[in-house]
Amino acid sequence: MPLAQLNGLHGTPALEGRVGPHVPYGTPVNLPAELGNDLIRLTFEADASTWCKLATLAHLEGDDPFTFENLPMGDLDARLWELRGTLESGTAWSLAPHQVGGFDVRSTTDTAGNPALLLLWTGCIVPGSSGDVLTVAVLVSLAAGDQVSRWTGFVDRVAGSTETASVDEFDLGIVCWKSPIATQGAETNIEASARAFYTHCVNHSDATPLFSGGNNPLRRWALGVGYTLSHPSGGDQAPNIYSQQLQFNSLGCADSADTASFRRILYMGTEDSRGYYKEFVHRGRNDGTNAAMEWRATFFPSFAKLPSGSDAFPHSEFGNVCRTAYPVAIGALLSPHDALWLHACQFYRETVVERLGLGGLPRELRTDNSPLHREGIMHGEISFLGDVVGMFSRWVELTQIVEAILANPHVSHPLFQMWTVWVQGQQSIEESPADPVTPDPLVPPAIAAGEALGFMTFLYTQTRRIQRDVGWEAHLVDKGEVHRRDGTVHPTYLYADYATPEGRAMPLELVRQVQASTGCQGIYSDGLLGGHSAVVYDPTDPAERGHPSHGGRYWTDGRTTFARAVRAMIEAASGSACLVSETAEEGSAMQAFDLTQEGLVPPGGHLLLAAEALYTYSMTGVPAAARDVSPPLWQAVYHRWHCTGRFVTTLTDVGLATNATFYPDGLFAGMTADEWIDWQTYWWLLTWITGNKPLFLSHWGAGPIDRPSVTLDDLGNLETADPAADPADTGLTVVEFIRHLMAGWKLEHAGRFLVYGHLEAPLEVDYTDPLNDVVVNPTAVCQTKTTEADGQWTRPAYYNTDSATTDAVLSPDFDVPKVHHAVWRGQNGEVGIILGNWTGAAATFKGELDPEAYGITGEYSLRLVVTDVDTDAGQLDFSDPLQSGLLAAV
Amino acid sequence: MSPNPNSRTRETAIGQFSGAITLQADGTPGTVTGTLVQLGEVPARSTMVLVLVPTGVAGGSLDFSIPGNPYLGVP
């Protein structure tokens, strides 16, 4: 048994004095049979060398089941032994040190087989109880790699008292209550409970509870921790519809060496006792005369029922567990440098990149030790929205462009064709189910021809929601109806209940018919978000509701099940299935998809920085404009706050002021060539340097903006499509940069990191240093130079931080560095520091490298790698038909 | 199949280090002054990679046949 670790617990003199006899590490010691499964939580603190994980659980003897709720915070040295809890009957109790009969520590294993310490308190008598003698056990799992510096919790402030707790008292880094919490008159039970929550620190090795779309990590993480609230109401807007039990969890900085940020809270989310998940955002509100801080439920109605007349924002739907005139609890992140975000972000990225297969290779290619694979040049992906007539020629044309961009005619890139108009008016279950799927007659032969050329085809489907009143209701056993916040049935959409076989049946049938009737290899399932919690407020009465209430796990699990079913079906049919979705949403990370798209980053599926956190405990250098938009964590750390979601790099000239077709009399406000180039290259670099790929490489041949900026001449060379509209050759300039990045995927350049490595914490970078020159975020130009009408096509990334509205947040005009960087670890132990300059002029950079931060304690060598791209040599040589199967085929 | 024939990769050894260093993408590439390592400016619209190889790590090679790695080699 690693006694040293146990002895490393700080503030536990009693523990140190009572450590039992040495037991060999891993020696199994069975849990006493009398131990039950009640949850307890204890607080202890470990030093930097100690790692442990509180796994389970507790027991009591006697009739009253109870839940230990906390160890009191404050002076742990003196009060470690004091346990407090509340009997289920509501009786509060505590155990003073002298009331504990004995303490023992044993070596054991946890249910996963990890070595563990079993801490036992025996002979505990709870004052005020019926005299039960309790045994309390805590299993501290010592799973290798886990590092939990401290588990802790607190709760149970005295009802009605004036809270004066300070940060120091709680020692949690939480800004606690400076005055009574939400106590508008008599404190209600929920208000008292709301003041109780737990927090603990985890690191990335555990399932970091980050995501509104990622219930599964949260669920695993939440097991055995958290605090349960019960409230009979759904809040003012949904009174008495459903009861809730919420478990609050939060993520804090676990770096005990960083005293300034240790235990600062990063995030809080909840999962109730039924497995439904909620996420909160901490938000300030101001109605002009009143200010308040709120926990706003992102995908859920209000929890707390505020007393009538007490709400400063009567029309707010953001009733919350806590509403105060001061910061309450979450979002209190203090991170003096970017590296502290590593734990969350690394887990995030590993989840997204690895589990989602963002490398972009279909499964059969992932196992291929091919030069293509080695080279790391994955794929070009094209799409178009053209009509059926002429689609084949356009398809080939676009593919040729992509191939020319990739500039490697010697490799048959696995190019994917996503086909959105494969059958007129029926690619979606928003359409009528009355008729069987019937493709346009041109579609099957076009698919056959494309696949003969080496394309993998996948056809667009839309199964995420169903239009009402087109005949689907009869096919949905649960009616498909969902209720809105006010209790009314949603007037526009039905939702298939993918959690049930009956609910999956019809969408699966649609997909089956699509594939059977066209012969396509793959299916593109638009926005089948594996984790996006549906907001459903259905009544509890089964006769009235269409679905189980809430969003969360029920829906995410259901969609995952559906995705897997689709994939299994198309794979069985074609033998080489490729199920594609869009968005890099964490909840989709269930190995259900072969390919998805990082380029579209929906905020609903990502951890957002709480705005208040940035106001109050900002990371250094956080621009005010970035604070206002509460960027997703990924962007905050790796993209310097810029919203890098969005679909596409649009190789189109429609955004340019020189394009007289659209400007000044058309939809577009008109960018200069430099503006257009800068936001494209900026977006490309940020995407590339963090190991991702764009959603589409296309020019979206839709409607009025079916205007590619580059095209192929007769010899297969890329050229500006319309020199009059694009006299500065903006498209070619961007293509040149794309080529450079593509070449950068080579193993000998950055490919062994970006393609096969893992993203590490960024360097310490002082962005106030003159060497780290900054300029205004180049995508901010789109705030004024594009319009809503063209935003879908030409705007760069934006995200919507507010699920209650549909307002998107465009990139603010904060400063961003000219040189971005990312640190990666290769599979062979190398660390790659990748620098990228997206601007049109050489730029400088300065960063501090602490190799120990990446686990390197000894000597190391440095090599500088640069790659030059001969763009002239990158053109396809169509004079040699062997170099272009496409041309030969056409 | 050869790597992309249209690009050329050049590597420059900078030196051996231990402990923290400052990386500056300015000055003369490869110049080392104490713990300051200069890399040269990052050219317009381009990237560079600084590869750190711990002593004892071969570096540069990549094993594509890691058993159990569904993304590389043997499934």
Describe this protein's structure:
The complex is a heterodimer of chains A (890) and B (75). Chain A contains 22 helices and 34 strands. With 890 residues, chain A is of the alpha+beta class. The longest helix of chain A has 22 residues, at 553-574. In chain A, strands 1, 9, 10, 11, 12, 13, 14, 15 and 16 form a nine-stranded mixed β-sheet that branches. Chain A has a five-stranded parallel β-sheet with strand order 17-18-19-22-23. In chain A, strands 2-8-7-6 form a four-stranded antiparallel β-sheet, with no helix packed on it. Helices cover 22% and strands 19% of the residues of chain A. Chain B is mainly beta. Helix content of chain B is 0%, strand content 40%. In chain B, strands 2-4-3 form a three-stranded mixed β-sheet, with no helix packed on it. Chain B is globular. The chains are: A alpha+beta (890), B mainly beta (75). At the A-B interface, helix 9, helix 17, helix 18, helix 19 and strand 32 of A face strand 1, strand 2 and strand 5 of B.
Supply the key terms.
heterodimer, A: 890 residues, alpha+beta, 9-stranded mixed β-sheet, 22% helix, 19% strand, B: 75 residues, disordered N terminus, disordered C terminus
Helix content of chain A: 10-25%
Main beta sheet of chain B, described?
A: 3 strands, mixed
Low-confidence spans of chain B: 1-5, 61-75
Determine the oligomeric state from the structure: heterodimer
Give the tally of β-strands of chain B: 5
CA-CA gap between termini of chain B? 23 Å
Q: What general form of chain A does the structure show?
A: globular
Class derived from helix and strand content of chain A: alpha+beta
As residue ranges, the low-confidence spans of chain A are: 1-101, 104-111, 114-122, 124-287, 290-344, 354-391, 407-415, 420-428, 530-535, 586-590, 598-620, 699-704, ...
Alpha carbon gap, first and last residue of chain A: 71 Å
**Structural class of the secondary elements of chain B?**
mainly beta
Largest sheet of chain A: 9 strands, mixed
Strand adjacency order, main sheet of chain B = 2-4-3
Could you tell me which chain pair has the largest interface and how many residues each side has? A-B, 85 and 63 residues
Q: Report the total helices of chain A.
A: 22
What count of helical segments of chain B does DSSP give? 0
